[in-house]
Amino acid sequence: MQSELVALHQQLDTPPTQEEIIQAIREELFTMQDVVRYCVSCFAAHHIYVGHGTDNYWDEALEIVQAVMHLQPPCDDSTLSSRLTQKERAVISRLVCMRIFARLPTPYLTHRAFFCGHEFYVDDRVIIPRSPIGELIEQGFSPYLDRSPQRVLDMCTGSGCIAIAIALHFPDAEVDAVDISPDALEVAELNIDAYGLNESVFPLQSDLFNNLPAGDKYDLIVANPPYVDASDLANMPEEYHAEPALALGSGEDGLNCAKRILAKAGDFLNDDGVLIMEVGNSAEALNDAFPLVPFHFIDLKRGGTGVFLLSAEQLRAYRDSFVQAAAEIKHEC
Q1: CA–CA separation, 164 vs 159, rounded Å?
Q2: Which residues contact 64 (CB under 8 A, 6 or more apart)?
Q3: How many Å is the Cα radius of gyration of the chain?
Q4: Pair 92, 82: CB distance under 8 Å
């Protein structure tokens, strides 16, 4: 009895192999619910990390299956009893194995991510959309803007999701979508074309403000720059290393890009304009670097931290401190 129990425990403690996963999904499981449930078990057994659009194994598995079925979330529960075709199960089995054994984030496997209720094309040229700034966009940036912005700058646009979501919420606004990466801008252009926003969202290649016309003014600058510090970058789950390194790390304290943006943003805002920037876990380091600056960190109801607001007046008042900090950066972001 004891030896049998040991053998059973060994089976329980041994996660399924790639071959076992492929066989089970292709030959033993038939409904959407069967496959999703099995995928959840496989994800748990292999301890994958979720955080690129989902926060639990069920939603992670469901998104893979829905994408293969060409279904849009949220999925109607009645579809869970639907039988999958042999081809669908074959594709799902390969994607699930890539998710587990290559540790690729699901949006890179499905080429789709969701932000502010909109679908965006993504691949490994861009960071996967997940910014809590989405909550502010859905609220029209209330109560932080007194009027609808006419000109908006989305700094470090990546896939273009923030710029596009802003343009969809404010249809009369012009939005400049800036990124240093030509590869990222190619993805942004795909999404701009998909939403038919070529006359209102304009992708621009620039190292932050460097290539923007002097004297250009915006009502709102939204920035989601790289902000992961060296320590966090070294200890991130493997899934994050599939994303462009350029879009994650930003110096020892994670603030190289943020400091450079702070040094210039006041020059590119109208007098009543505001800067909204995300610095995530580097918020404490930001406060330490500028103890006299009254950063207003926004209380986000749906989670997420490190999003702050400064007015044009505040940016100009503390410009000297920001410029000095930017000048001390040893390596640009």
Answers
A1: 9
A2: 39, 92, 95, 96, 99, 106, 109, 110
A3: 22
A4: no
- Per-residue pLDDT of 251-290, as tens digits, reads 899 999 999 999 999 999 999 999 999 999 999 999 999 9
Q: How many domains does the chain have?
A: 2
**Do 56 and 144 belong together in one domain?**
no
For residue 308, give the CATH number of its domain: 3.40.50.150
**Boundary of a domain, candidates 56, 88, 110:** 110
Q: CA-CA distances (angstroms) from residue 24 to 13, 33, 109?
A: 18, 14, 20
Range of the domain at 279: 116-327
Q: How far apart are CA 233 and CA 203, in angstroms?
A: 28
Provide the token pair at 189: 């252009």
Q: Sheet of 174-179: strands edge to edge?
A: 201-205, 174-179, 151-155, 218-223, 269-278, 307-311, 296-297
306 conformational bin, left if phi > 0, alpha if psi -120 to 50, beta if neither: left
Question: The pTM is what?
Answer: 0.93
Report CA torsion sign: 191, 193, 199, 205. Answer: positive
Domain assignment present for 164: yes
Whether the upstream peptide bond of residue 143 has omega within 30° of 0, thus cis, is: yes
- Let me know whether 36 and 163 are in one domain: no
DSSP 223: E
Looking at the structure, do residues 161 and 296 belong to the same domain, yes or no?
A: yes
